User: What shape does this take?
Amino acid sequence: MYRRILFAVEDDAALPAAIGAVAAYAGFWGAQVQVLHVHRRVPAIPNGADRRLVDAVVERLRTEGVDVHGVTRSVESDDEIAETVAAVATSVPPDLLVVGSRGRSGVAGLILGSVSQRIAAGLDVPVLVIRASYTALRTPRRVLVAVDGSPASDEALAEAAVVVAARADAEVLVLHVQQVLAVQGVAIVERDAEARAIVDRAVEALGARGVRARGGTVVDRSVAAAIVAAAERFGADLVVLGSRRPSGVGGILLGSVGYEVVSRMRRPVLLARRIRDKEPALEVPDSRR
Assistant: This one.
């Protein structure tokens, strides 16, 4: 359960949705929230507006009964904003970082990176990304978690279990995408039995944690597109993904399923605790043991 939430805010279109989501989640978990705004220092412009932004967000959350306080940080350039948020989150690690996203997509967005992408790349803690278009401001009753049998997807299962642990009526859909790969003009797809085994293990692991779950597989050329489509069909309130977050623009240029899902998805996306190369994941209980 998330007891400490760091809410990084910007005065943009994503803020209203993010405030509503944070209020709902904090109330659900009884979490304490720290509101953080990092702004670029401009000598000719007084920084009172930045403090007023934080104060307004704090006041809004307090009216919802949230235990909250706010802080500001200033930097010399916009390039330092994401790094500063990551530094704050690293100094006293929260259980969850929440950021808003205006949903940039396309080549330009991937090359430049968005603040939410760059923050996620610099952190190991779970990151919840709220899109500006998100309107169903409630705690999750339907959660989709994407798995591929890797340590990172085991972490996603663990996050999904944390999210729904206190809600008896929550339902989890475990999804595995059998990606179609073209090799020398021949389409190659993972065998159905292997795909089903990955899903069955994940469903059993969640069941061992007391989570009501069912599973499914889908064949698609694009893993991200398949996840987005499945979330729409399922009516997911939240999508949970494992994460081997790339660091820096080079990693973003290479692309990742997580970032592509965030750019396409209208629903909140939770990037699980980052798994670094050669790092074992937290053990996910398997009822067959």
Remarks:
- The domain at 142-271 is CATH 3.40.50.620 (Rossmann fold).
- The radius of gyration is 19 Å.
- Residues 208 and 287 are 6 Å apart (CA to CA).
- The chain has ten helices and twelve strands.
